[in-house]
Amino acid sequence: MEIAKGKRALVVGVANDKSLAWSIARQLHEAGAEIALTYQGEVLEKRVRPLAAQIEAAVIGELDVTNDDQIAAVFGALKEKWGGLDMLVHAVAFAEREDLRDRFLNVSRKNFARTMEISAYSLVALARAAEPLMEARGGGSIVTLSYLGAVRAIPNYNVMGVAKAALEACVRYLSIDLGSKNIRVNAISAGPARTLSSSAIRDFHTMAHEVEQRSPLRRAMDVEEPAKMAVALLSDLGSGVTGQTVYVDVGYNIVGF
Ligand code: NAP
Q1: For position 120, which CATH number holds?
Q2: 113-136 burial by CB neighbour count: b if 16+ within 10 A, else e?
Q3: In terms of residue numbers, what domain contains 174?
Q4: What's the pLDDT band for 43 if we cut at 50, 70, 90?
Q5: pTM of the entire structure?
Q6: Whether 173 is catalytic
Q7: Between 39 and which of 45, 111, 119, 241 could a Cys-Cys bridge form, CB atoms 3.0 to 4.6 Å apart?
Q8: Is 39 marked active-site?
């Protein structure tokens, strides 16, 4: 079913073929959307270009989300290419490796601010840049990716959990600001998946094992599962949903024991 046919989507956060953003981009393509991807630096450009070719996606430019000039250039290029934008996927997060394996208490002022800037503020910056392009299309939908560490204290997730809590709050406030323009904003709280980012978290495999043992579905999350939910939220199937954090974690978040 081509539920995203005729829609145009910017997907930010593809680092390699294990990235959650890549699964989302692939599924959006299968659903009929036209895709634009960004990359961060030359090394990633080399990985992103061949992936983009697989789904006939445009590589719209370099985007470090801390760089306002690059944000302006990417959205300027999208305006020129498409005149508007229907869907935005924000799948970006960063914390120093040392902060994902030490006591949370020890995080420095500098690292705390940087983690918040890249992992939470960047959603606000990208949503602001997307607003006029989505308005030009009569509305749009934005999806970001969160994790249970936003609402529970999960060993080693530390400052990233604080940033995810901020990210989920940003989703709620953005949804109020953008709702009158028919722009929806939601987060998917995904279960553990083996990616470049998650490999930095100490004892990540223990977290993943715990989910397999204790989740209601008694198995690991498949990376295609958050991607399927992203397509639903980004498309008309999610037309009544905004400001939400939707758990796609084989049910793990509801378990108390
Ligand atoms: P990933 O493949 O490593 O993707 C993370 C992306 O963020 C990378 O493309 C990375 O680029 C990018 N990034 C970091 N700093 C950036 C910056 N300053 N500007 C632009 N991009 C930047 O890992 P992933 O697991 O798919 O992560 C995607 C999202 O899902 C993240 O928000 C993550 O927290 C969330 N999530 C992941 C899991 C999981 O278990 N994997 C679970 C729940 C939620 P570089 O490689 O160049 O830094």
Answers
A1: 3.40.50.720
A2: ebbbebbbbbbbbbbebbbebbbe
A3: 8-249
A4: confident
A5: 0.98
A6: no
A7: 45
A8: no
